[in-house]
Amino acid sequence: MTGSTMTRAGKRAMIISTAAAAAAVGVLAVPAQASSWSSYISSAGNDFESRRWTDDGGSTTIKFTSCHRDGTQAVGVMLRKDTFGPDPMYSNANFTNCFNSGATSTGNWDDHGSGDYYFVIDYGSNVYAPVSVDSLTVYY
Predict the structure, then answer these.
(1) 113 neighbors 7 (Cβ within 8 angstroms)
(2) Separation of alpha carbons 60 and 24, rounded Å
(3) What's the burial of 75, exposed, middle or buried (CB within 10 Å: 0-12/13-18/19+)?
(4) Helix, strand or coil for residue 100?
């Protein structure tokens, strides 16, 4: 092998190893991203269950914007974890601000570990007027 060929081979090996190291660092350096989903609710009654989402752990925030209901201007929102057997119930947030024009109500729940979660509206309550929400977002 000539000196020129060895130099090119050495450069090629260094470029490949540098690219591999950069790729490995890039994979390790990716920050954990919070996830979310958005939707709306139309005429939901007592014990309405939201869709499920998979959470890897961390806090959960649920926001309702522009709520509508005849009578009571409040909606209870309870976070639950979908498990085998009875689903654990976490604190109930009472959303009232979202009934003000264009306003948002927010509920925050601490980390309850990884798993599948959902929320229930007016769990076990005696509120019989359905509630509608123009915009809801769940951050987890």
Answers:
(1) no
(2) 31
(3) buried
(4) coil
